[in-house]
Write a structure and sequence with these properties.
This protein has about 475 residues and is α/β, with parallel strands linked by helices. The protein contains 14 helices and 21 strands. It has a six-stranded parallel beta sheet, sandwiched between helices. A five-stranded mixed barrel has the order 17-18-19-21-20. The longest helix has 24 residues. Bound molecules: S-adenosyl-L-homocysteine, iron/sulfur cluster (SF4) and FE3-S4 cluster (F3S).
Amino acid sequence: MTEMPFRSETLSEKQREYMKLIAEIMEIRKRGERPLAFVRTYGCQQNVADSERIKGMLEGSGFGFTDTPDDADFILFNTCAVREHAEDRVFGNVGALKNLKRRHPQILIALCGCMMEQEHVAERIYNSFPFVGLVFGTHSLHHFPELLYSNLVDGRRVFERGVDDKKVYEGIPVHRDGSFKGWLPIMYGCNNFCTYCIVPYVRGRERSREKDVILSEASQMIKSGYKDITLLGQNVNSYGKTLETPVTFASLLGKIDEMDGDYWLRFMTSHPKDCSRELIDTIAGGKHISRHLHLPFQSGSDRILKAMNRHYDRKKYLETVNYAKERIENVSLTSDIIVGFPGETYEDFKQTLSLIREVEFTSLFTFIFSPRKGTPAEKMDDPIPASEKSKWFRELLDVQEEIAAKRCASMVGQTERVLIEGEKEKTGELNARTSGNIIVELEGDPELIGTFQNVKITQARNWILKGELI
Ligand code: SAH
Ligand code: SF4
Ligand code: F3S
Protein backbone atom coordinates (compact mmCIF):
# COMPACT_ATOMS: atom_id res chain seq x y z
CA MET A 1 0.00 0.00 0.00
CA THR A 2 1.42 3.43 -0.86
CA GLU A 3 0.79 6.09 1.72
CA MET A 4 -0.59 9.48 0.74
CA PRO A 5 1.97 12.24 1.22
CA PHE A 6 1.19 14.38 4.24
CA ARG A 7 0.11 17.93 3.53
CA SER A 8 1.61 21.08 4.93
CA GLU A 9 -0.53 24.04 5.95
CA THR A 10 0.25 27.51 7.21
CA LEU A 11 -1.00 28.96 10.49
CA SER A 12 -4.31 30.39 9.40
CA GLU A 13 -5.38 34.02 9.35
CA LYS A 14 -8.14 32.95 11.73
CA GLN A 15 -5.58 31.99 14.41
CA ARG A 16 -3.81 35.31 13.94
CA GLU A 17 -7.14 37.06 14.49
CA TYR A 18 -7.57 35.09 17.73
CA MET A 19 -4.12 36.24 18.83
CA LYS A 20 -5.26 39.87 18.44
CA LEU A 21 -8.46 39.18 20.40
CA ILE A 22 -6.47 37.52 23.21
CA ALA A 23 -4.22 40.58 23.39
CA GLU A 24 -7.30 42.80 23.83
CA ILE A 25 -8.76 40.62 26.60
CA MET A 26 -5.41 40.33 28.38
CA GLU A 27 -4.96 44.11 28.35
CA ILE A 28 -7.94 44.18 30.73
CA ARG A 29 -7.22 40.97 32.69
CA LYS A 30 -3.49 41.42 33.32
CA ARG A 31 -2.36 41.80 36.92
CA GLY A 32 0.88 43.68 36.31
CA GLU A 33 2.13 46.08 33.70
CA ARG A 34 1.78 43.54 30.92
CA PRO A 35 0.27 40.04 30.72
CA LEU A 36 2.81 37.40 31.74
CA ALA A 37 3.05 33.70 30.95
CA PHE A 38 4.93 30.98 32.83
CA VAL A 39 5.72 27.98 30.62
CA ARG A 40 7.33 24.83 32.04
CA THR A 41 8.44 22.05 29.72
CA TYR A 42 8.87 18.38 30.64
CA GLY A 43 10.30 15.65 28.42
CA CYS A 44 12.38 15.67 25.29
CA GLN A 45 13.62 18.38 22.93
CA GLN A 46 10.58 17.80 20.75
CA ASN A 47 8.52 19.23 23.60
CA VAL A 48 11.01 22.05 24.10
CA ALA A 49 10.59 22.93 20.42
CA ASP A 50 6.79 22.83 20.75
CA SER A 51 6.97 25.11 23.79
CA GLU A 52 9.02 27.58 21.77
CA ARG A 53 6.18 27.68 19.25
CA ILE A 54 3.53 28.09 21.93
CA LYS A 55 5.61 30.92 23.39
CA GLY A 56 5.80 32.43 19.91
CA MET A 57 1.99 32.46 19.75
CA LEU A 58 1.76 33.84 23.30
CA GLU A 59 4.19 36.60 22.39
CA GLY A 60 2.06 37.36 19.35
CA SER A 61 -0.91 37.63 21.74
CA GLY A 62 0.80 40.32 23.81
CA PHE A 63 2.36 38.15 26.54
CA GLY A 64 5.76 38.56 28.14
CA PHE A 65 7.36 35.74 30.13
CA THR A 66 8.16 35.17 33.78
CA ASP A 67 10.03 32.48 35.74
CA THR A 68 7.83 33.03 38.78
CA PRO A 69 4.44 31.27 38.70
CA ASP A 70 3.09 33.74 41.27
CA ASP A 71 3.55 36.66 38.87
CA ALA A 72 1.91 34.93 35.92
CA ASP A 73 -1.49 35.50 34.33
CA PHE A 74 -1.18 32.28 32.37
CA ILE A 75 0.54 29.07 33.48
CA LEU A 76 1.23 26.27 31.06
CA PHE A 77 2.85 22.89 31.65
CA ASN A 78 3.91 21.06 28.48
CA THR A 79 3.96 17.44 29.62
CA CYS A 80 5.76 14.16 28.85
CA ALA A 81 4.26 10.67 28.98
CA VAL A 82 7.33 8.55 28.26
CA ARG A 83 7.67 6.99 31.73
CA GLU A 84 5.50 6.80 34.82
CA HIS A 85 7.95 8.91 36.78
CA ALA A 86 7.59 11.75 34.24
CA GLU A 87 3.81 11.64 34.62
CA ASP A 88 3.94 11.50 38.41
CA ARG A 89 6.04 14.64 38.50
CA VAL A 90 3.49 16.47 36.38
CA PHE A 91 0.56 15.33 38.53
CA GLY A 92 2.43 16.41 41.66
CA ASN A 93 3.32 19.83 40.26
CA VAL A 94 -0.18 20.43 38.92
CA GLY A 95 -1.63 19.55 42.33
CA ALA A 96 0.63 22.18 43.87
CA LEU A 97 -0.95 24.88 41.68
CA LYS A 98 -4.22 24.58 43.58
CA ASN A 99 -3.09 27.03 46.25
CA LEU A 100 -1.77 29.45 43.69
CA LYS A 101 -5.15 29.46 41.97
CA ARG A 102 -6.79 30.08 45.33
CA ARG A 103 -4.53 33.09 45.94
CA HIS A 104 -4.97 34.48 42.43
CA PRO A 105 -8.25 33.13 41.01
CA GLN A 106 -7.79 34.97 37.72
CA ILE A 107 -4.68 32.96 36.78
CA LEU A 108 -5.45 30.66 33.89
CA ILE A 109 -3.90 27.21 34.25
CA ALA A 110 -3.34 25.07 31.15
CA LEU A 111 -1.77 21.68 30.38
CA CYS A 112 -0.63 20.43 27.01
CA GLY A 113 1.71 17.94 25.37
CA CYS A 114 2.08 14.19 25.19
CA MET A 115 0.35 13.24 28.45
CA MET A 116 -2.77 15.10 27.41
CA GLU A 117 -3.17 12.94 24.31
CA GLN A 118 -4.07 10.02 26.56
CA GLU A 119 -7.76 9.77 27.28
CA HIS A 120 -7.33 8.42 30.81
CA VAL A 121 -5.02 11.31 31.73
CA ALA A 122 -7.33 13.98 30.32
CA GLU A 123 -10.19 12.40 32.26
CA ARG A 124 -8.21 12.39 35.48
CA ILE A 125 -7.31 16.05 35.01
CA TYR A 126 -10.92 16.89 34.26
CA ASN A 127 -12.21 15.15 37.37
CA SER A 128 -9.46 15.77 39.92
CA PHE A 129 -8.08 19.19 38.99
CA PRO A 130 -11.07 21.52 38.44
CA PHE A 131 -8.78 24.56 38.52
CA VAL A 132 -7.18 23.50 35.20
CA GLY A 133 -9.05 25.52 32.59
CA LEU A 134 -7.42 24.45 29.35
CA VAL A 135 -6.08 21.08 28.16
CA PHE A 136 -4.83 20.35 24.67
CA GLY A 137 -2.75 17.61 23.07
CA THR A 138 0.19 17.62 20.66
CA HIS A 139 -2.12 17.68 17.63
CA SER A 140 -3.78 20.94 18.66
CA LEU A 141 -0.76 23.24 18.68
CA HIS A 142 -1.72 25.08 15.50
CA HIS A 143 -4.98 26.30 16.93
CA PHE A 144 -3.81 27.04 20.43
CA PRO A 145 -4.86 30.73 20.02
CA GLU A 146 -8.44 29.67 19.33
CA LEU A 147 -8.50 27.33 22.34
CA LEU A 148 -7.04 29.95 24.67
CA TYR A 149 -9.50 32.53 23.39
CA SER A 150 -12.52 30.22 23.98
CA ASN A 151 -11.47 29.77 27.58
CA LEU A 152 -10.81 33.47 28.16
CA VAL A 153 -14.02 34.65 26.60
CA ASP A 154 -16.46 32.73 28.75
CA GLY A 155 -14.35 30.98 31.39
CA ARG A 156 -15.57 27.51 30.38
CA ARG A 157 -13.09 24.66 30.61
CA VAL A 158 -11.69 23.69 27.21
CA PHE A 159 -10.39 20.14 26.63
CA GLU A 160 -9.16 19.01 23.23
CA ARG A 161 -7.24 15.90 22.29
CA GLY A 162 -7.07 13.10 19.74
CA VAL A 163 -7.49 15.07 16.53
CA ASP A 164 -4.53 13.90 14.46
CA ASP A 165 -5.21 15.40 11.04
CA LYS A 166 -1.81 14.10 9.88
CA LYS A 167 -0.72 17.53 8.68
CA VAL A 168 2.36 19.62 9.24
CA TYR A 169 1.63 23.24 10.16
CA GLU A 170 4.09 25.91 9.10
CA GLY A 171 4.27 29.61 9.82
CA ILE A 172 3.82 29.29 13.59
CA PRO A 173 5.85 32.07 15.25
CA VAL A 174 8.77 30.84 17.37
CA HIS A 175 10.12 32.33 20.59
CA ARG A 176 13.45 30.57 21.02
CA ASP A 177 14.75 30.05 24.55
CA GLY A 178 18.43 30.24 23.63
CA SER A 179 20.33 32.77 21.57
CA PHE A 180 23.11 30.48 20.32
CA LYS A 181 21.78 26.93 20.85
CA GLY A 182 18.63 26.15 18.93
CA TRP A 183 16.26 23.33 18.03
CA LEU A 184 14.99 22.75 14.54
CA PRO A 185 12.22 20.15 14.15
CA ILE A 186 12.43 18.39 10.80
CA MET A 187 9.63 15.87 11.36
CA TYR A 188 6.91 14.95 13.80
CA GLY A 189 5.44 11.70 15.09
CA CYS A 190 6.72 8.16 14.84
CA ASN A 191 5.72 5.02 12.92
CA ASN A 192 7.91 2.53 14.72
CA PHE A 193 5.75 1.29 17.55
CA CYS A 194 8.52 -0.10 19.72
CA THR A 195 6.44 -2.24 22.05
CA TYR A 196 7.32 -0.29 25.21
CA CYS A 197 6.83 3.18 23.81
CA ILE A 198 3.92 5.61 24.12
CA VAL A 199 5.28 8.19 21.66
CA PRO A 200 3.50 6.96 18.48
CA TYR A 201 0.18 7.02 20.37
CA VAL A 202 0.59 10.55 21.67
CA ARG A 203 2.42 12.14 18.74
CA GLY A 204 0.72 10.42 15.83
CA ARG A 205 2.13 9.15 12.54
CA GLU A 206 5.45 10.24 11.17
CA ARG A 207 5.34 13.30 8.95
CA SER A 208 8.22 15.34 7.57
CA ARG A 209 8.50 19.05 7.02
CA GLU A 210 9.28 20.14 3.44
CA LYS A 211 13.00 20.33 2.73
CA ASP A 212 12.89 23.96 1.56
CA VAL A 213 11.12 25.10 4.73
CA ILE A 214 13.81 23.43 6.85
CA LEU A 215 16.62 24.86 4.74
CA SER A 216 15.26 28.36 5.06
CA GLU A 217 14.78 28.03 8.83
CA ALA A 218 18.32 26.67 9.18
CA SER A 219 19.73 29.51 7.11
CA GLN A 220 17.86 32.09 9.21
CA MET A 221 19.17 30.51 12.40
CA ILE A 222 22.75 30.56 11.15
CA LYS A 223 22.41 34.19 10.04
CA SER A 224 21.00 35.22 13.38
CA GLY A 225 23.99 33.77 15.21
CA TYR A 226 22.97 30.24 16.27
CA LYS A 227 26.15 28.26 16.89
CA ASP A 228 24.71 24.88 17.80
CA ILE A 229 21.69 23.74 15.83
CA THR A 230 20.02 20.39 16.54
CA LEU A 231 17.73 18.84 13.94
CA LEU A 232 14.93 17.05 15.74
CA GLY A 233 12.75 14.04 15.09
CA GLN A 234 11.90 10.75 16.81
CA ASN A 235 13.70 8.96 14.03
CA VAL A 236 15.52 11.45 11.83
CA ASN A 237 16.88 8.65 9.67
CA SER A 238 13.50 8.11 8.09
CA TYR A 239 13.11 11.82 7.31
CA GLY A 240 11.59 12.60 3.94
CA LYS A 241 10.12 9.19 3.16
CA THR A 242 6.54 10.50 3.23
CA LEU A 243 7.19 13.66 1.21
CA GLU A 244 5.76 13.98 -2.28
CA THR A 245 9.35 14.09 -3.55
CA PRO A 246 11.21 11.81 -1.13
CA VAL A 247 14.47 13.16 0.34
CA THR A 248 16.98 11.26 2.50
CA PHE A 249 18.07 12.60 5.87
CA ALA A 250 21.70 12.39 4.79
CA SER A 251 21.04 14.67 1.81
CA LEU A 252 19.15 17.18 4.00
CA LEU A 253 22.01 17.20 6.49
CA GLY A 254 24.54 17.60 3.69
CA LYS A 255 22.59 20.55 2.23
CA ILE A 256 22.52 22.41 5.55
CA ASP A 257 26.18 21.65 6.11
CA GLU A 258 26.98 23.49 2.85
CA MET A 259 25.68 26.75 4.35
CA ASP A 260 28.41 29.27 5.23
CA GLY A 261 28.94 30.26 8.83
CA ASP A 262 30.56 29.22 12.08
CA TYR A 263 28.20 26.69 13.62
CA TRP A 264 27.77 23.08 14.66
CA LEU A 265 25.04 20.89 13.35
CA ARG A 266 23.62 18.07 15.49
CA PHE A 267 20.65 15.77 15.15
CA MET A 268 18.57 13.42 17.24
CA THR A 269 17.37 10.75 17.41
CA SER A 270 18.76 8.19 14.98
CA HIS A 271 17.14 4.78 14.90
CA PRO A 272 19.78 2.08 14.28
CA LYS A 273 17.54 0.21 11.85
CA ASP A 274 17.70 3.14 9.38
CA CYS A 275 21.19 4.47 10.09
CA SER A 276 22.68 4.36 6.59
CA ARG A 277 26.29 4.37 5.41
CA GLU A 278 25.31 7.45 3.38
CA LEU A 279 24.54 9.23 6.68
CA ILE A 280 27.81 8.17 8.29
CA ASP A 281 29.73 9.27 5.19
CA THR A 282 27.95 12.63 5.30
CA ILE A 283 29.01 13.13 8.92
CA ALA A 284 32.56 12.06 8.07
CA GLY A 285 32.79 14.55 5.21
CA GLY A 286 30.87 17.36 6.94
CA LYS A 287 32.30 20.77 7.75
CA HIS A 288 29.86 21.63 10.53
CA ILE A 289 28.37 18.29 11.54
CA SER A 290 29.33 17.30 15.08
CA ARG A 291 31.34 14.10 15.47
CA HIS A 292 28.65 12.62 17.60
CA LEU A 293 26.16 9.87 16.95
CA HIS A 294 23.34 9.24 19.42
CA LEU A 295 22.24 5.76 18.44
CA PRO A 296 19.92 4.19 21.04
CA PHE A 297 20.27 0.41 21.09
CA GLN A 298 17.97 -0.25 24.12
CA SER A 299 19.19 -3.82 24.70
CA GLY A 300 22.17 -5.98 23.77
CA SER A 301 20.08 -9.15 23.58
CA ASP A 302 18.60 -10.16 20.22
CA ARG A 303 15.69 -11.88 21.92
CA ILE A 304 14.75 -8.69 23.77
CA LEU A 305 15.32 -6.48 20.71
CA LYS A 306 12.82 -8.66 18.87
CA ALA A 307 10.28 -8.39 21.68
CA MET A 308 10.82 -4.62 21.62
CA ASN A 309 10.08 -4.56 17.85
CA ARG A 310 13.29 -2.70 17.13
CA HIS A 311 14.02 -4.27 13.69
CA TYR A 312 17.79 -4.68 14.12
CA ASP A 313 19.94 -7.14 15.97
CA ARG A 314 23.17 -6.86 17.89
CA LYS A 315 25.25 -7.79 14.84
CA LYS A 316 23.68 -5.11 12.64
CA TYR A 317 24.06 -2.52 15.41
CA LEU A 318 27.74 -3.31 15.84
CA GLU A 319 28.31 -3.19 12.07
CA THR A 320 26.85 0.33 11.99
CA VAL A 321 28.88 1.44 15.01
CA ASN A 322 32.09 -0.03 13.61
CA TYR A 323 31.56 1.68 10.29
CA ALA A 324 31.04 4.98 12.14
CA LYS A 325 34.23 4.44 14.15
CA GLU A 326 36.15 3.67 10.99
CA ARG A 327 34.87 6.67 9.01
CA ILE A 328 34.47 9.42 11.63
CA GLU A 329 37.68 10.28 13.44
CA ASN A 330 37.19 10.25 17.22
CA VAL A 331 33.48 9.69 16.91
CA SER A 332 31.58 10.08 20.17
CA LEU A 333 28.82 7.50 20.56
CA THR A 334 25.92 7.79 22.99
CA SER A 335 22.85 5.65 23.50
CA ASP A 336 19.62 4.97 25.37
CA ILE A 337 19.13 1.73 27.27
CA ILE A 338 16.14 0.12 28.93
CA VAL A 339 16.77 -2.23 31.84
CA GLY A 340 14.16 -4.76 32.89
CA PHE A 341 12.02 -5.03 29.77
CA PRO A 342 9.33 -7.71 30.40
CA GLY A 343 10.88 -11.16 30.14
CA GLU A 344 14.47 -9.89 30.28
CA THR A 345 16.69 -12.30 32.23
CA TYR A 346 20.04 -11.61 33.83
CA GLU A 347 21.60 -13.43 30.85
CA ASP A 348 19.96 -10.95 28.48
CA PHE A 349 21.07 -8.07 30.66
CA LYS A 350 24.67 -9.34 30.56
CA GLN A 351 24.48 -8.98 26.77
CA THR A 352 23.69 -5.30 27.28
CA LEU A 353 26.72 -4.95 29.55
CA SER A 354 28.98 -6.68 27.04
CA LEU A 355 27.72 -4.41 24.27
CA ILE A 356 28.48 -1.23 26.18
CA ARG A 357 31.95 -2.59 26.96
CA GLU A 358 32.50 -3.38 23.31
CA VAL A 359 31.32 -0.01 21.95
CA GLU A 360 32.70 2.24 24.71
CA PHE A 361 30.04 4.93 24.70
CA THR A 362 30.83 8.45 25.84
CA SER A 363 27.62 8.58 27.83
CA LEU A 364 24.35 6.72 28.23
CA PHE A 365 20.77 7.58 29.06
CA THR A 366 19.58 4.64 31.10
CA PHE A 367 16.02 3.83 32.11
CA ILE A 368 14.21 1.13 34.02
CA PHE A 369 11.28 -0.21 31.99
CA SER A 370 8.06 1.60 32.80
CA PRO A 371 4.79 0.04 31.59
CA ARG A 372 2.77 2.49 29.47
CA LYS A 373 -0.97 2.10 29.17
CA GLY A 374 -2.08 0.83 25.78
CA THR A 375 1.34 -0.38 24.60
CA PRO A 376 1.95 -4.09 23.84
CA ALA A 377 4.68 -4.35 26.52
CA GLU A 378 2.23 -3.29 29.22
CA LYS A 379 0.50 -6.64 28.80
CA MET A 380 3.64 -8.79 28.66
CA ASP A 381 4.54 -11.07 31.52
CA ASP A 382 7.04 -9.26 33.74
CA PRO A 383 8.23 -11.62 36.49
CA ILE A 384 11.43 -9.84 37.61
CA PRO A 385 10.84 -7.79 40.79
CA ALA A 386 11.61 -4.06 40.81
CA SER A 387 14.34 -4.55 43.44
CA GLU A 388 16.20 -6.94 41.12
CA LYS A 389 15.88 -4.54 38.18
CA SER A 390 17.32 -1.76 40.35
CA LYS A 391 20.32 -3.95 41.12
CA TRP A 392 20.96 -4.54 37.42
CA PHE A 393 20.52 -0.84 36.79
CA ARG A 394 23.17 0.00 39.39
CA GLU A 395 25.51 -2.52 37.81
CA LEU A 396 24.99 -0.89 34.42
CA LEU A 397 25.79 2.55 35.83
CA ASP A 398 28.97 1.25 37.43
CA VAL A 399 30.20 -0.32 34.20
CA GLN A 400 29.40 2.83 32.22
CA GLU A 401 31.12 5.04 34.77
CA GLU A 402 34.28 3.02 34.35
CA ILE A 403 34.07 3.26 30.53
CA ALA A 404 33.29 6.98 30.49
CA ALA A 405 36.12 7.68 32.93
CA LYS A 406 38.55 5.75 30.72
CA ARG A 407 37.36 7.57 27.61
CA CYS A 408 37.60 10.97 29.26
CA ALA A 409 41.03 10.21 30.70
CA SER A 410 42.28 9.40 27.21
CA MET A 411 41.43 12.97 26.18
CA VAL A 412 43.73 14.63 28.72
CA GLY A 413 46.45 16.63 26.95
CA GLN A 414 44.41 17.02 23.76
CA THR A 415 43.19 20.29 22.33
CA GLU A 416 39.45 20.50 21.74
CA ARG A 417 37.27 23.11 20.11
CA VAL A 418 34.38 23.82 22.46
CA LEU A 419 31.28 25.97 22.53
CA ILE A 420 31.06 27.95 25.78
CA GLU A 421 27.50 27.47 26.98
CA GLY A 422 27.17 29.11 30.37
CA GLU A 423 28.47 29.79 33.83
CA LYS A 424 28.32 27.45 36.82
CA GLU A 425 26.46 29.18 39.61
CA LYS A 426 28.48 27.77 42.49
CA THR A 427 32.05 28.03 41.23
CA GLY A 428 31.78 30.73 38.58
CA GLU A 429 33.53 28.38 36.16
CA LEU A 430 32.41 28.26 32.55
CA ASN A 431 30.58 25.24 31.10
CA ALA A 432 31.43 24.21 27.59
CA ARG A 433 30.72 21.32 25.26
CA THR A 434 32.86 19.52 22.69
CA SER A 435 31.68 18.54 19.23
CA GLY A 436 31.29 15.01 20.65
CA ASN A 437 28.89 16.40 23.29
CA ILE A 438 31.29 16.03 26.26
CA ILE A 439 31.12 18.67 29.00
CA VAL A 440 34.25 20.69 29.74
CA GLU A 441 34.61 23.05 32.70
CA LEU A 442 37.12 25.88 32.57
CA GLU A 443 38.04 29.26 34.03
CA GLY A 444 37.21 32.24 31.86
CA ASP A 445 35.35 35.46 31.24
CA PRO A 446 31.54 35.07 31.02
CA GLU A 447 31.73 37.31 27.95
CA LEU A 448 32.90 34.18 26.13
CA ILE A 449 29.50 32.50 26.53
CA GLY A 450 28.13 31.70 23.09
CA THR A 451 31.55 31.59 21.38
CA PHE A 452 33.76 28.76 20.13
CA GLN A 453 37.14 28.46 21.87
CA ASN A 454 40.11 26.13 21.75
CA VAL A 455 40.75 24.45 25.05
CA LYS A 456 43.50 22.21 26.34
CA ILE A 457 42.07 19.30 28.33
CA THR A 458 43.91 19.19 31.66
CA GLN A 459 41.95 16.74 33.78
CA ALA A 460 39.21 14.13 33.57
CA ARG A 461 36.62 13.54 36.30
CA ASN A 462 34.36 10.63 35.44
CA TRP A 463 32.45 11.96 32.45
CA ILE A 464 33.34 15.64 32.89
CA LEU A 465 36.54 17.23 31.62
CA LYS A 466 38.49 20.17 32.98
CA GLY A 467 40.26 22.45 30.54
CA GLU A 468 42.19 25.67 30.01
CA LEU A 469 41.65 28.28 27.35
CA ILE A 470 44.43 28.42 24.79
N1 SAH B 1 12.72 8.06 19.34
C1 SAH B 1 13.79 7.84 20.17
C2 SAH B 1 13.50 7.76 21.64
C3 SAH B 1 12.36 8.46 22.24
S1 SAH B 1 12.02 8.12 23.91
C4 SAH B 1 14.42 6.49 19.76
O1 SAH B 1 13.80 5.64 19.21
O2 SAH B 1 15.57 6.33 20.07
C5 SAH B 1 13.60 8.22 24.70
C6 SAH B 1 14.02 6.99 25.38
O3 SAH B 1 13.16 6.69 26.46
C7 SAH B 1 13.99 5.73 24.54
O4 SAH B 1 15.11 5.61 23.73
C8 SAH B 1 13.94 4.63 25.58
O5 SAH B 1 15.22 4.26 25.99
C9 SAH B 1 13.22 5.32 26.75
N2 SAH B 1 11.87 4.80 26.90
C10 SAH B 1 10.82 4.93 26.07
N3 SAH B 1 9.75 4.30 26.56
C11 SAH B 1 10.11 3.74 27.74
C12 SAH B 1 9.45 2.97 28.72
N4 SAH B 1 8.19 2.60 28.58
N5 SAH B 1 10.15 2.58 29.83
C13 SAH B 1 11.44 2.95 29.98
N6 SAH B 1 12.11 3.67 29.08
C14 SAH B 1 11.46 4.08 27.97
FE1 SF4 C 1 9.36 5.31 20.65
FE2 SF4 C 1 10.53 3.56 19.11
FE3 SF4 C 1 9.35 5.69 18.02
FE4 SF4 C 1 11.60 5.96 19.43
S1 SF4 C 1 11.36 4.85 17.50
S2 SF4 C 1 9.76 7.21 19.59
S3 SF4 C 1 11.40 4.44 20.99
S4 SF4 C 1 8.35 4.03 19.10
FE1 F3S D 1 8.03 12.66 26.34
FE2 F3S D 1 6.52 13.23 24.31
FE3 F3S D 1 9.12 13.53 24.13
S1 F3S D 1 6.30 11.48 25.63
S2 F3S D 1 9.92 11.99 25.50
S3 F3S D 1 7.80 14.64 25.47
S4 F3S D 1 7.73 12.92 22.52
